[in-house]
Design brief:
Number of domains: 2
CATH topology of the largest domain: Rossmann fold
Strand order of the largest sheet: 2-3-4-1-5
Strand content: 5-15%
Structural class: alpha/beta
Largest sheet: 5 strands, parallel
Helix content: 55-70%
Distance between the termini: 31 Å
Shape: globular
Radius of gyration: 23 Å
Order of helices and strands: HEHEHHHEHEHEHHHHHHHHHHH
């Protein structure tokens, strides 16, 4: 394990000091991204030749993540202003209106922030932005937020003194495959291949270390809840999510309260208690509606819809899942939309709305194939074949099975070979 950490440390050091590549995408699990943040924090304590801006907060939505970035950055800038004042130097200029304006797309606000900080920081030392959320919920939204940092066509001059570290999920990567397909040689990709047991041990050490900031310890505690859930230790996961919820409630951090509630809902549903899970999702919705956050609302309504399906409350499920489908469309998240359409078709089919269910499934299948989600398309084709069998439509059932077989062989129309 130590050799992997040493290699990661060397890679990060080389990235910070080199001038040719502005962006590095880290591909790893939620637990695995703890290590880059720790290494960069150590660099910050040791290194007088670069500025380090580290943002490990969870990303339930790009809007909420960016607001957390701003809050953390303001605190850091206040400290920096104090240091400047002690040296009889003028303070930094206030953040421009383009950064503060919530009507603007988050990507535009982020670019404006980077431009501003690049002009304000003294000297020409590199500015390292670790925009690496410890929990990545809204993948499509995060990708849209960081798009200006991906140098899709060229590296613009305003990126010259900056180094950006971004996050991709190991279980379902988005940025890394896109960069590879586009042959983007301006952005580096690093796979965080770290041992899960050691990562878990490190998280436990962080959570127990009272010398660390409370936010950092609680984030590690929350991530340990995710490890417990993944391992089927439901009671332990719920206990950790409860402690984290109480902490975030005490600090008035509503987005992370919602994240704790939806995570608890996921855990309860996984344990088979869909009734209790539904209560948690509904509690999360009460908070996320107050926040007027579409990504947070979508997570809650989708989870509630799945619970209603589990409980046989199909009409309620249809309402929740239709809302999930609409929100996924507004958020430009085709993967979430295809998932919502599949489950919405189930809710309609159970209510004997057969034509509506079939149309819904066909829409979901087409969307999944268009965006390369073969697994979702295959699942929907199985549902279509079974429904046609039950309706006595043997020829159509056979046609769907042939399409399913072609998909397995990598030859489905509009699909992509695995």
């Amino acid at each position: 394990m130590q050799r992997e950490i040493d290699r990661l440390t060397d890679s990060l050091r080389q990235f910070v000091t080199q001038p040719n590549y502005p962006t590095l995408v880290l591909v790893g699990t939620d637990a695995g991204v703890v290590f880059p943040h720790r290494i960069l924090a150590a660099f910050d304590r040791q290194d007088d030749d670069a500025y380090y801006l580290l943002f490990p907060q969870p990303c339930p939505s790009p809007e909420q993540y960016f607001e957390q970035v701003l809050a953390a950055l303001r605190s850091q800038l206040e400290i920096f202003d104090q240091e400047l004042g002690a040296r009889s130097l003028p303070p930094l200029e206030r953040l421009p209106l383009d950064v503060e304006d919530r009507r603007q797309p988050v990507a535009r606000r982020l670019e404006a922030l980077v431009r501003h900080i690049g002009k304000q920081m003294p000297s020409d030392s590199p500015i390292v932005w670790a925009l690496v959320p410890g929990e990545l919920g809204d993948v499509a939204g995060y990708r849209a937020m960081v798009e200006p940092l991906l140098a899709l066509e060229r590296v613009p001059p305003w990126m010259d003194r900056h180094r950006f570290l971004l996050r991709d999920r190991r279980e379902a990567p988005t940025l890394a495959p896109e960069l590879h397909a586009a042959r983007n040689d301006r952005v580096l990709v690093l796979d965080l291949d770290l041992d899960q047991a050691r990562v878990t041990s490190s998280l436990a050490e962080t959570a127990a270390d009272r010398s660390l900031p409370a936010d950092e310890r609680m984030l590690a505690f929350f991530q340990l809840g995710g490890v417990d859930m993944a391992l089927g230790r439901h009671a332990l996961a719920l206990e950790k999510y409860g402690v984290a919820f109480n902490y975030y409630q005490s600090t008035s951090n509503r987005p992370l309260q919602v994240l704790c509630l939806t995570s608890a809902g996921d855990t309860l549903r996984q344990s088979g208690d869909s009734k209790a899970a539904l209560e948690r999702y509904q509690q999360s919705l009460a908070l996320s509606v107050e926040e007027q956050s579409a990504p947070l609302i979508r997570t809650g309504v989708h989870g509630a819809g799945l619970c209603c399906l589990d409980l046989g409350r199909d009409a309620e499920a249809e309402g929740y899942l239709e809302h999930s489908n609409q929100l996924a469309g507004k958020l430009n998240d085709p993967f979430a939309k295809a998932e919502a359409l599949e489950q919405l078709g189930v809710a309609r089919y159970r209510q004997r709305k057969v034509p509506d269910a079939v149309d819904t499934w066909l829409a979901g299948k087409g969307l999944a194939l268009k965006f390369g989600d073969e697994r979702r398309a295959a699942s929907i084709l199985d549902r279509l074949a079974q429904a046609c069998d039950e309706q006595g439509l043997t020829d159509r059932a056979d046609a769907f099975r042939r399409e399913r077989a072609g998909l397995d062989a990598g030859a489905a129309p509009g699909g992509h070979a695995a």
